[in-house]
Amino acid sequence: MKKLRKGFTTGTCAAAAAKAAALLLRGERRARVSVALPSGERVSLGIAQLEVRGGRARACVRKDAGDDPDVTNGALICAEVRRRSGEGVVIKAGEGVGVVTKPGLAVQVGEPAINPVPREMIRRAVREALPEGGVEVKVEVPLGRELALRTMNPKLGIVGGISILGTSGIVEPWSESAFRRSLVPQIDVALSAGFEEVVLTPGKIGERSALRRGVPGDAVVQCGNYVGYMLEQCAERGIKGALLFGHAGKLVKVAAGIFNTHSRVADARLETLAAYAAEAGAPQGLVSRVLRSATAEEAVGVLLTGGYGGVLNRIAERASERAVERTGGKLKVGTALINLKGEVIGSDEGARLIRWGRYLL
Q1: Per-residue pLDDT, 64
Q2: Are residues 166 and 182 located together in one domain of the fold?
Q3: How far apart are CA 270 and CA 255, in angstroms?
Q4: If pLDDT is split at 50, 70 and 90, which confidence band does 2 have?
Q5: What is the pLDDT of residues 34-88, one digit of tens each?
Q6: Whether residues 31 and 160 fall in one domain
Q7: Is residue 1 part of a domain?
Q8: How do residues 146-167 score in pLDDT, each as one tens digit?
Q9: CA-to-CA distance for 336 and 349, rounded, in angstroms?
C-alpha cells in the first residue's frame, strides 16, 4: 500500500514566504528557505515568486498539502515585508486573508485570521533574516476570498478570505481528526454570543431550515457526520443543551447508537426504521416495504402514509437517550427529524425543552 505523503500548513508556507521576502529585502534572493516547525524540526520550502517594490519585498510559496484533500492545496501563500520604525514584528492581513469579526476564536475580533502558532512561526522566520529593528509583514493569499467559501470561515464570522492555520506546521494526509477539530470553533462562537443551548445539525438541510425558522446563525452548529464527537465537545466546553436537528436519514442512525453517521462507517437506517415500526405493531407487509425502500426518505413516506408516523417520534426520543448516554448525562438533548424539504416529521419532548424548540417545532 502506498504511503501517503505529508504536506505543509498555510502557517508554514506563510513563514517561509515571509523569510524569503525578508532575505530579499536585505539583498539575498533564495530559491528555497528553511523554517523551524513548532517541534524544533526544520523544513525547506521552494519559493515560487520573488519581487522588490521600492522598500518592500514580496515572496510567495505554492502550498503543497501532500496527499491531503485540502482546499488550499496549490494556492499561492505570499508575504510582503517592509522595514518600519520602532521594534518588533507586526503581522497584518493582506488580500485573501480573513479578518475575525466574532468572539470565541483563537484570535481577537478585528485581527487577521492568522492563528497564534503561525504568527510565532512567521515572527521567528523573519527574525532569522532580519534580527533587529521594526518589521511589518503582510500575509496575502491571491485566491483566498474564493477559497474561503469552501471552508467554515463564513460560518465562523471570518470575512475576506481564508485563515492561516496549523499547530504542528505539517499537514497529515486524510486527517479525520483535523477536520473534526475544525468544527469545534463553532461551539466557542456560540458561547461567546451568549448561547448555552445550540441546534446541532449534521448538514445543510438542517442548517437552512433552522435559520429560516429564526434560529440565530451563531446558535446553529454543524457537526457533519461527527455527531458523537460534537456532542462530547459541547458538553466539555460548557454547552447546557443541544437540539439534534437534521434529516431522518442521519439521525435515525443515532437512535441505533451510531455516532459517526458516514455511510462507510455504518448504515442501519432502514433496519432501525423497520424495527421501530414492528415494535409499534405495524403489519409485516409495511415493515417489509420499509426494508425494501431505496432511501430513508422513501421509508419515512411508507411510515407516514401507512399511519405509523408516531414511530418517528419514538426514534427521536431514542436518539436523545443515546446522546445523553454518550455525554454521561452532562448535556440536555432533544431531537427533531426533518425531511428533504426541511419539514419536521418527528420529535420528542426533549426538543421542546431546548430553547430553540419553540422556533423549530
Answers
A1: 92
A2: no
A3: 12
A4: low
A5: 999 999 999 999 999 999 988 999 999 999 988 777 889 999 999 999 999 999 9
A6: yes
A7: no
A8: 999 999 899 889 999 999 998 8
A9: 10
- Which residue has cell 431505496? 294
User: Which range marks the domain in which residue 277 is found?
Assistant: 177-360
d(CA 345, CA 250): 14
Assigned domain for 286 exists: yes
Indicate whether 258 and 319 sit together in one domain: yes
Q: Are 342 and 209 in contact (CB under 8 A)?
A: yes
Q: What is the 3-state secondary structure (H, E, C) of the chain?
A: CCCCCCEECHHHHHHHHHHHHHHHHCCCCCCEEEEECCCCCEEEEECCEEEEECCEEEEEEECCCCCCCCCCCCCEEEEEEEEECCCCEEEEECCEECEECCCCCCCCCCCECECHHHHHHHHHHHHHHCCCCEEEEEEECCCHHHHHCCCCHHHHCEECEECECCCCCEECCCCHHHHHHHHCHHHHHHHHCCCCEEEEECCHHHHHHHHHCCCCHHHEEECCCEHHHHHHHHHHHCCCEEEEEEEHHHHHHHHCCCCECCCCCCCCHHHHHHHHHHHCCCCHHHHHHHHHCCCHHHHHHHHHHCCCCHHHHHHHHHHHHHHHHHCCCCCEEEEEEECCCCCEEEECHHHHHCCCHHHHC
One domain for residues 161 and 206: no
Q: Which residue has the cell 425531511?
A: 339
Q: Does residue 2 lie within any of the structural domains? A: no
pLDDT of residue 1: 44
Same domain, 262 and 309: yes
Considering the domain architecture, whether residues 80 and 211 belong to the same structural domain is answered as no
Final residue of a domain: which of 147, 174, 201? 174
The domain boundary, picked from 157, 174, 191, lies at 174
197 and 313 within one domain: yes
Pair 183, 332 in one domain: yes
pLDDT digits (tens, 9 = 90+) for 84-135: 999 999 999 999 999 999 988 889 999 999 999 999 999 999 999 999 999 9
pTM for this entry? 0.78
CA atoms within 13 A on the CB side of 171: 26
CB-CB contact of 198 with 225 (8 Å): no
